[in-house]
Amino acid sequence: MKQRGSVRVSNASPEPVRVVVEPWAIEYDLPSRSFCEVISVGGYPPIDIEVENLDYGIVFWINTEGATYEYWQDGRFID
Fold first, then answer.
1. How do beta strands 67-73 and 17-22 pair?
2. How confident is the model over 27-78, as pLDDT tens digits?
3. Three-class SS of residue 2?
4. CA nearest 33: which of 17, 48, 45?
């Protein structure tokens, strides 16, 4: 079984928020009143996901060597 770790955040603001998943620099728009979950899949323990709230959006850093990620928004997998 692959290692998995996750972080979930919600956007309570009236405006959309940019979400960036690093180190891939993949961007998503998180609509107002929505939530997202970023899941680290695979890689070598420990599972390490850092979250930063910056001026331009929320950044998720997947710091687990060899991991990939999944992005879920409002309970739906976004490919």
1. unpaired
2. 999 999 999 999 999 988 888 999 999 999 999 999 988 999 999 999 999 9
3. coil
4. 17
| Amino acid identity at 62 | I
Q: Which DSSP state fits 79?
A: -
Q: Sketch the domain layout of the chain as residue ranges.
A: 4-78
- Produce one character per residue of 26-40: b if its CB has 16 or more CB atoms within 10 Å, e if not: eebebeeebebbbbb
Task: List, as one string, the DSSP characters of 3-72.
Answer: -EEEEEEE--SSS-EEEEEETTTEEEEE-TT-EEEEEEEESSSSP-EEEEEETTEEEEEE-STTEEEEEE
| 1 has pLDDT over 80 | no
